[in-house]
Amino acid sequence: MITFIVEDRDGTQVPIEIPEGINLNLMEVLKGSDYPILATCGGMALCATCRVQVINGAEQLPPPGDAELDILDTLPFVDESSRLSCQLRVNESLEGCLFRIPQED
């Protein structure tokens, strides 16, 4: 099992356990767990409505790709902790991470 924590907009933290080898990204898991992720573009790294903040564990995640960096660069409200959940595959790199759903911008 891969376990990570999600902090909702109200500050509630909930551990999420996902079987290893599942072919999903973090956005799909968050939407399936009823978190308020819009994901307007459906996970194509075009809209940033699936943005999360990585509070713990950023160093173990793969670096953002060009498409993710391009969309994040267009947003005025991001910092180095911002990632697009659609670009984070659910695998062992997420183990122990803490992701925050940011307030609506």
UniProtKB/TrEMBL annotation:
Cofactor names: [2Fe-2S] cluster
InterPro entries: 2Fe-2S_ferredoxin-like_sf (IPR036010), 2Fe-2S_ferredoxin-type (IPR001041), Adrenodoxin-like (IPR001055), Beta-grasp_dom_sf (IPR012675)
Domain 2Fe-2S ferredoxin-type: 1-105
Domain of life: Bacteria
Keywords for this protein: 2Fe-2S, Iron, Iron-sulfur, Metal-binding
Family note: Belongs to the adrenodoxin/putidaredoxin family.
Entry protein name: (2Fe-2S)-binding protein
Organism of origin: Mucilaginibacter aquariorum
